[in-house]
Batch of 4 targets.
Target 1
Amino acid sequence: MTLETLPAQPVIAAERFVLRPPRRSDAGLLALYAGDRRVAEGTRTIPHPLPPGAVEAFIARALSEGRREDVWVLDGAAQGLDEVLGVISLTRMDRGQSQIGYWVAPAFWNTGIASEAVRALVAADPHRARTLFAEVFQDNPVSARVLTNAGFEYLGDAEAYSVARGRVAPTWTYLRKGRAA
């Protein structure tokens, strides 16, 4: 048996789950959920179909010491939910800014899981960011509502490339002032 040493990253409590760093043992559920076309097309970077080793490489990057992105798994096991409900991340940008990204497994859509995760991460403020940014594809108004309910304000329209879609798609960009602002 090999013990896994996780890099220093806080575990963040939400009401129905915790946000914790990913583990190698999460690979199966992450592959199952991220392999769903609907999940992949809601992100910029998840390919569809998922190539072999993609999830393992994602976990390795998330656990690396020199990462720019901190990744948390939404783990509901202690509350009788799945061990992996989705993923939320913060990517460090310049000038004390971070960008938040998230996805939730389709089985947990419309349950408030995404809203709870975003609110918990914003409240914990692990990057001590002056400003938080987020973007959602315009064909995902539910995700936009998650952000506005967490205090994000609409900043403007843009475009982003989605690997799963294989094209550029229109986005809405949001911002939220952090406590360090």
Note: The longest strand covers residues 167-177.
Target 2
Amino acid sequence: MEFKFTEENLTRIEQEVKKYPERKPAVMAALYLAQEQNGYISNEVIKEVADVLGITAEDVLGVVTFYTMYHQKPMGKFHLQVCTNVSCMLRGGYEIWDQVKDKFGIENLGITEDQNFSLEEVECMGSCGTAPMIAVNEDYYENLTNEKVEEILESLKSTN
């Protein structure tokens, strides 16, 4: 299935390109827009980003595979990222991880049958002082307890 950026997203990429002396540094922003438009980063998306920026597909793939914020397969409407790095682990990160896994019956990078929820175990998300934390799409939740996590998950279920 072919992927092409919308005219609006091409304009946004060109605005991003103007911030740099060359086109290549705009790859992260272009990938973010592509993921927003397509839902995930497919091989077709990688090729389109490379073509638009005038760089190699290998350069784009290197960025996609390095950063966890880019998904190479479809994720759920609500993508839940649970931090289990040291600070979060010491303050209950694995308990939260198990809680979310058990609630939805999915493993790391799994997605629920209804496509509403996906789950990912992640390394540090930069919230060590307010650990443990999770992210739901682009929203961060910090200083969590199992009760707070349950409230968050239930509120997500009610918005479907």
Note: DSSP finds seven helices and four strands in the chain.
Target 3
Amino acid sequence: MRKSRMERKTGETRVTVSLNLDGKGEAEVNTGIRFLDHLLSHLARHGGLDLEVRAEGDLAHHVAEDVMIVLGQCLDRALGKREGIRRMGDAIVPMDETLVMVSVDLSGRGYSSVEMKLGSKRVEDLEAGLLEHLLNTFAVNGRFNLHVLVLRGENDHHKAEATFKALGLALAEACSRRGKGIPSTKGVLS
């Protein structure tokens, strides 16, 4: 089973994440940041991942960042040697006036290019400017390439939600099993 559970305790936060890549899309998320909980629930549902997140801490910024660090580490651990996976995945997701494209490569190398084009300072109870940083943090700690492009949209809530739905779909495709061996002509990933 491709599962992992990890904890992170610092002077600022306490985070526990459990992840099952072969789940049913079920999520139990409680970070104390309602919009982050909402986004992570969409990631799980659309990615077919079972996800449990418990987090508390001093500041929303620290909690959100540490959640994404641990989530990335859980993804990396659950993938193991990344044998037999499809490796790459992408999705284009509409949400009302918004259209978002997300592409991932579970290459073993962390990189992100995220263009969400958010116009407000806050999206619900989360700093809007933090969203791109959180996605980068997830990609670096999960050791995968992540490209996000909001193609069109007006509503920042819709942009963020469509991004996490598309990320879930892209990860589901990339994590899917396609055979045996390492999906690389080099014979190794990273």
Note: Helices lie at 34-47, 60-79, 128-142, 156-175.
Target 4
Amino acid sequence: MAEAMGAVPDYLGHRERLRQRFRQGGADAMPDYEMLELVLFRSIPRADTKPLAKALIARFGSFAEVISAPPERLMEVKGVGEAVAMDLKLVQAAALRLARGEVMNRPALSSWKAIVDYCRAAMAFETREQFRILFLDKKNQLIADEVQQQGTVDHTPVYTREVIKRALDLAATAIVLVHNHPSGDPTPSMADIDMTKKIVQAGEKLGVLVHDHLIIGKKAQVSFRALQLI
């Protein structure tokens, strides 16, 4: 009623203050729920988005986990419909596109942090295990990035022959293996170690070097090369 009579709703002033804070300090000046509010402004133009932003953070844990959540789980939160879920997934897709652009056709070993950041963005909050391969050419430039297998919450079947065959199909001379642990703990299992050894041995026979195997957890990652497992 007050809005219809010309009064300015309280949420409009709040929105402008958040926008101003973002303009002045960027994302680092804002907690996760306020960043989420800024995204929700576009989906929900005529309401206070703070309660919904806080509810989403409470449910999923962080900004990254919110935008990474499946649409059906997002819509379990009261106030999230298809339009809101789509906008959140669009933010995730844009972030992945940007991160992927930072690593494609660049020497992998000189942009290792960007590769790790991309893998974390793509896989850290997946609810099922994924096995991904980054294929490199003779200059160690990334020429392809493919998810080879998707599994359950704690297992992904990996077939050595298929890994090496795909590398040869792409004329890749080196690969980086990547998979996630949905449990959050990136510690390699004995199965992870055994599988990696088999791929390394098969690759050596056919001229395909395994640079590393990364295991991505929710808050950390481990490198087989750093652990001297390769």
Note: The longest strand covers residues 142-150.
